[in-house]
Amino acid sequence: MQLEEVQNLIALYALDLLDESERCIVEEAIASNPQLQTELANFQLAASAIAYSAPPTSIAANLKARLFERIAPQKREPDLTYVNTLRQQAVNVNWQPYAPLPGLEVGTLYVDREKQEVAYFVRAEAGLQFPTHYHVGNEEMILLEGDLIVDRKTYTEGAVICSEPNSSHQPSTVNGCLLFLRSSLEDAIVD
Predict the structure, then answer these.
(1) What is the chain's percent helix, strand, coil content, to nearest 5?
(2) Is 37 within 8 Å of 28 (Cβ atoms)?
(3) 41-50, long-range: CB within 8 Å, 24+ apart, which pairs?
(4) How large is the C-alpha radius of gyration of the chain?
(5) Is the pLDDT of residue 191 over 60?
(6) C-alpha–C-alpha distance, residues 80 and 158, integer Å
(7) In which element (H, E) is residue 184 found?
(8) Could you tell me the pLDDT band of residue 129, with boundaries at 50, 70 and 90?
(9) Separation in Å, CA 90 to CA 36, 73, 159, 184
(10) Are β-strands 188-189 and 117-124 bridged in parallel, bridged antiparallel, or unpaired?
């Protein structure tokens, strides 16, 4: 490649706009020509000053709010078809009182020992506070009826509440609730 062609590529090199083969050509030419090294240094200096040469402009007053709105998780509408299917399954499980806590019943849907996972339903009376429990793995709760308070946030019918591994909480209900839960068999009651 002729010197004039390399000189034309040096400005693009300074802006990092060349493909790999063009970059190699420019780098080989610069390594053997001190004049091209100086030219590249001048272009790099000019390129770094571009951002500071633009006139100051004020940003929109609501820019921060708009950005957070765009990156915030989208609120999902509850899938009431799935909620109704789970409600029907809850009718057919074998409900057992949870002996350590009056007002709480549990109905197991399935136990998967290979995955160390259990899926079950929980029915709680009004005013009940669940025991604090620790999650070894992910927990998914779907509120089928009533209300549930988890970490000071109140959830209603159709809400999906997920807890991550190595977390703990102590939910409660004001008016009573029916829950579907999928969780690890290794979860533990803390108190």
Answers:
(1) 35, 30, 35
(2) no
(3) 43/10, 43/11, 43/13, 43/14, 43/15, 44/14, 46/14, 47/14, 47/15
(4) 31
(5) no
(6) 6
(7) strand 177-184
(8) very high
(9) 77, 30, 17, 20
(10) unpaired
Q: What per-residue confidence (pLDDT) applies to 186?
A: 87
The whole-number pLDDT of residue 3 equals 79
Q: What is the pLDDT of residue 75?
A: 55
Query: For the segment 17-60, what is each residue's pLDDT rounded down to a tens digit?
Result: 888 888 888 898 888 888 888 998 998 888 888 878 878 778 88
State which CATH number among 2.60.120.10, 3.90.950.10, 3.30.465.10, 3.30.420.10 fits the domain covering 80-189. 2.60.120.10
Task: Decide: helix, strand or coil at residue 109.
Answer: strand
What is the identity of the amino acid at 23?
R
The per-residue pLDDT for 1 is: 67
Tell me if 125 sits within 8 A of 174, measured CB to CB. no
Q: Which residues pair with 169 in a beta bridge?
A: 133
99 pLDDT band, cuts 50/70/90, is confident
Token code pair at residue 114: 């290979």
The mean pLDDT of 105-119, rounded to a whole number, is 92
Q: Taking the alpha carbons of 83, 85, 90, 94 in that order, is the dihedral positive or negative?
A: negative
